[in-house]
Amino acid sequence: MRSTLLIRAAISLQSTTRRRRKSIVTGMATTSDPHGVFAFAASLDARPDRDRCLAALARAFIDHRGQLWPEGDAHATPQWISDNAAAMLRVLERIYRAACDPDEDHPGAAEFLHRMAWLPTLIADLDASKATHRLDA
Q1: pTM of the prediction?
Q2: Whether residues 10 and 64 fall in one domain
């Protein structure tokens, strides 16, 4: 009797683990990038126009400090933002990934996406200008 219970528990645990692993893999495979942030952040280091993109991101981050830090931050100076634009994009990419995850309920996700509505447009413009530069070459 005791061995039967242990076998049932092991089978149940194994099934649960398989379902959980499948949902994790499925979630990773199907996480969409509706804002283009994931793909842009992943490709930034390999882009031939990386410096131009970082300069544009820094200018936008400086212009949108109020959306990035609604409570304000004395350390978020234009110089600091310019020096850290790539790191800021990586952090924003992780926050976007969490905010866009359909399997999770993150308080504040909708408010974050609303505040950051300007970023996908900027990214689309940067990607479009990359395509234009390729056509000109």
Answers
A1: 0.69
A2: no
